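Run log, item B.
One chain of 189 residues. Sequence copied directly from the ordering sheet:
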Amino acid sequence: MINEEQFVKVPMWILKISQVNGHKFTDSAKNLYCYLRGFDRAFPSYAKIGDVFGITPRAAEERVKKLLEMGLIIKDARPGSSNLYRVLDIPKGESSLPDPSEKEDESNEILNVSEIIVEEETQEPEFPERPEIFTWLLSLDKKKPPHEETEDFVKRALDSKNIYLCENDFDSLIIDLKSESTIYDSLPF
């Protein structure tokens, strides 16, 4: 029987990670990882994991196996009983995301915009040439939080695509954006 009051907390920084130790970090792997991480001592059976996630015990076993391969859990076999799982931290530097402790000063609104930028990045496998960069940035203007400076927002957007401009090119880009967009134009430069 599943405790209906129990829940699985999945931090935003975990949702943004796409790979761990060379393995794809799927949504189902993230959910199971966070589920096991929520216990002081995790020893659910495959049947229990299956009940929680609406999958078969065999599928639960495969998901546990994947977390083992990724190096995120250690399984201590207990003959005649369910296994004991020790949950390990996600290795630092596993993703291109900053360390979550460095983001403590930022507001949730800014994190949500970062999330949108990550989504844009996954929709376009390669970043377009300069004229398309301009169009892409214009398409993001409605996603810019009103309290964030235009320059900071554009820098974060470009950083998400690993694009770095010299100061003169960046200033020209900002001026062009402000001339084409009411959102970018609304803040002082």
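Observations after the first pass:
- The CA atoms of residues 92 and 99 lie 7 Å apart.
- Confidence is low (pLDDT under 50) at residues 96-130.
Flagged for discussion on Thursday.
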